[in-house]
Design brief:
Strand content of chain A: 5-15%
Radius of gyration of chain A: 24 Å
Distance between the termini of chain A: 45 Å
Oligomer: homodimer
Number of strands of chain A: 15
CATH class of the largest domain in chain A: Alpha Beta
CATH topology of the largest domain in chain A: Aspartate Aminotransferase, domain 2
Largest interface: A-B, 58 and 58 residues
CATH architecture of the largest domain in chain A: 3-Layer(aba) Sandwich
Number of domains of chain A: 3
């Protein structure tokens, strides 16, 4: 890297870190030249570069000013979805696999990834807990850790429920290979092949894949980025189709990032209880809130054991450990049995290592830092979308998690954008994989869980150009 | 423990360890009294105790002699099974759960357990490998270890195939949460709900539970403790019912312990290839052979990718780690996809720890010791069954694994024996859980994978009495 590039990068870092704020005046070329021991022309080159990238702006006879938040986030996505109210068979697996496969290379800019950056997690500290736990591992632990799982780990999880004011007994908790297994086991515990299951539209493609895999049909219910699933539609659908279960994410829904209001969660559970429809609650992003307080799960409002709460440590502490759990209410025994006959139990050393980490403390401190980082990254990513994407683009501004849901100008084909971006080693998650009806053709999901850097800046600029040139009406193009 | 009990236990230990062999004369009471610094009456009491337990015998004017192998193993089980040749729906889960649940307490003598003793495994050495691997864990490993799994671990597994003369490329290998997940994924990859799948009769209850869970029907084919599945019956059944797959254990079948001859494995694979029926090969006991050489899997004879080989480290190295794998031939991609949508991937630290252990060497040395121990324990258990069980009892004498299949005298109800034994804190695995037709009503499976001790001796004596008193015609009892 040349000297002026190093300097430009440093200044950009100060801006991204909030040391230099929007409107701040940069030190003059002369003073920077002196303080850094660089030639004036090197400093000039650095400032030109930043100006060219739209990060600073020269004002005549006044010097250079930070111009970052001239980058404005795009308008928000507000409209509810409008899926047809009929059970349909699901056929998303092949498409999802093709897309996921294409985004696995480390050379690809991971906007389409489902995972946050592994650099966000205290892996060294976890490693020490693993080592400590492995050293003290007793032979009979292999038996004691059998499903439902390590008593120590289940106690730690029960304590975290308690800290949120919830009484979940450790005997209700089943440790699983991540939340994905927990969700799949819950689904199997309450639904038989051919049954219909309610999902939101759009929804996590993993839910759709699970339905497809178990021969279940999906009934899609309208949801809104602002408030979540539409309860009147939900009730109508239940009355019409007697679903075997309802699979929802009240906290920071994937892909919309929606946070359902507490009183709405309560109303949701009451509605489902009235109709005796079990709720499979996917709650893996709840710890990643940007507000003051961890949002409660719908399970907090459950009085009859109808909510099967599923979560994990994969998104907030220990990716790759595959430690998740379910607290499946009245279905706990059935879920444990499904686990026993499919994967028997969860890796004992991983259970022991996590229990050790949680007992030692430090988890909450890590979480506070993680939430701050993600909130900051969301701001940067949102503004970059606003800066580089064409007019007509909208995006969510979720209060937690690490996904932006971006609505591209009408007529832009997200699958097409995905393919063109991938050819440039940039991944995006195209909208059509998030519904059984392959809707949301002009939407993409972007992951802001990776640190912003030069590559992200270049990739977002390139993506903006792809989107702009994919809009059906451009200068010289014929309208479709 | 009293002094004479300590002495008796020591002598018993020498006998069990083979230091004192059958027919050996014990040191005289006087010389033992002198060498141990114990009173003559203490030594006498010890000898009486051992005599009362049938382990030594006094010969008039000659002293005491080891009498252990006056314990003879019972006659072997030779007859093939004769299940009906029709697909039937499976309904074993509830019964299996009830039985497994009852055998989980550590206070219960684990004859009915499915697991070998955790004390047989190098858990401390594994712990060091876990610690080392956790210390060197790189953040991006969490991504690199995603399904199909850690390249290092898959390479180590491929090397073990190679050592057996088999070419299995590491790209074919999918790491799973133990063999049970591997088997379930393979089943899902080739069979759809409603399909029929061939199993042996008797077979591992986990296979039956998997069929039940996935809504598949079982077709049971006769098998024989001496040679394994009957190939002509198998071919006839295939022609009649077009099964979606065949789930077998050619090496040390559970529960019979049968080892299929190499040329028969070859013939089996040829037959299945001819009819295009995939073989799900459960090979978890192969490393536990008592002969000279690891028996080859059926996969060794596969030329078209029709064999889905499944195994794990759970029975031979690392119980509780939940590291298994499949090498599913032409179905590798489908199996990996099923894994991605159900449990995503396998615990990264457990994968890393095992790869580290295998790279460091020492596995084969551990296995040699383990095999010796199990072979020795089989001898002791077999002889104890012969000693304590009533005439008419037969038992297998497998060349590997850690199960005895015991055929009780005709008319003895294994479920009844199970219940009465459990009331005395002794578990057995009753025959009816090993077939879809709930057959083998007078059979039990005994686990000899736990060290023989006083409690085993007492438990086996009690079990023998239960069986004897459960025979339908006993003195003073009315024939049923």
């Amino acid at each position: 890297m040349k000297r002026y590039e190093v300097l430009a990068k440093e200044i950009e870092g100060s801006i991204l870190a909030g040391v230099l704020r929007n409107g701040d005046r940069l030190p003059s070329v002369r003073s920077t030249s002196t303080s850094r021991g660089l030639s004036a022309s090197t400093v000039f080159q650095a400032y030109y570069l930043l100006e060219a990238r739209g990060i600073i702006r020269a004002r005549q006879r006044s010097g250079y000013f930070v111009n970052w938040s001239s980058r404005k986030a795009p308008p928000t996505v507000d409209a509810p979805s409008q899926p047809a109210n009929t059970p349909i068979s699901v056929d998303v697996c092949a498409r999802v696999f093709a897309i996921l496969e294409s985004t696995r290379s480390r050379n690809v800019v991971p906007f389409g990834s489902a995972f946050p950056s592994p650099l966000l997690f205290p892996l060294a500290r976890l490693g020490r807990s693993m080592a400590q736990s492995a050293k003290n591992f007793e032979p009979w632990d292999t038996v004691d850790y059998l499903t439902p799982g390590s008593p120590d780990l289940r106690r730690q999880i029960a304590l975290r429920y308690l800290a949120d004011g919830m009484q979940v007994h450790m005997d209700e908790i089943v440790i699983t290979n991540g939340a994905l297994e927990a969700l799949n086991l819950c689904l199997q515990a309450v639904a038989r092949p051919g049954d219909a299951v309610i999902v939101e539209c759009p929804t996590f493609y993993g839910a759709l894949q699970a339905l497809e895999n178990h021969g279940l049909r999906a009934i899609q219910v309208p949801t809104c980025p602002k408030g979540g699933i539409d309860l009147p539609s939900l009730e109508k659908t239940i009355q019409l189709h007697q679903p075997a279960a309802c699979w929802l994410m009240p906290n920071f829904q994937n892909p919309l990032g929606t946070l359902m209001a507490e009183d709405k969660k309560k109303a949701l559970v009451e509605l489902l209880t009235r109709h005796d429809v079990p709720l499979i609650e996917d709650d893996v992003y709840a710890e990643l809130y940007f507000g003051d307080k961890r949002p409660l799960p719908a399970k907090a409002y459950d009085t009859t054991g109808i909510v099967m709460h599923c979560s994990s440590f994969s998104k907030c502490l220990a990716p790759g450990y595959r430690i998740g759990w379910s607290a499946p209410g009245r279905y706990a025994r059935r879920v444990a049995q499904k686990k026993l006959i499919t994967t028997l139990t969860t890796s004992a050393p991983a259970q022991g290592g996590l229990a050790n980490y949680l007992e030692q403390g430090g988890y909450d401190k890590h979480l506070r830092k993680l939430r701050q980082t993600l909130a900051e990254q969301q701001r940067i990513f949102s503004q970059a979308v606003g800066h580089y994407f064409p007019a007509g683009t909208r995006a969510t501004r979720p209060e937690g998690g690490y996904f932006l849901w971006v609505e591209l100008p009408e007529g832009v084909d997200a699958m097409h954008v995905h393919e063109r971006a991938l050819a440039m080693d940039i991944s995006v998650a195209p909208g059509p994989i998030f519904s059984a009806s392959h809707a949301f053709k002009n939407c993409i999901r972007l992951n802001f869980g990776h640190a912003w850097n030069d590559a992200s800046e270049r990739a977002m600029a390139a993506l903006g150009k792809i989107v702009a040139s994919s809009a059906p009406i451009t200068v010289g193009a014929v309208a479709r």
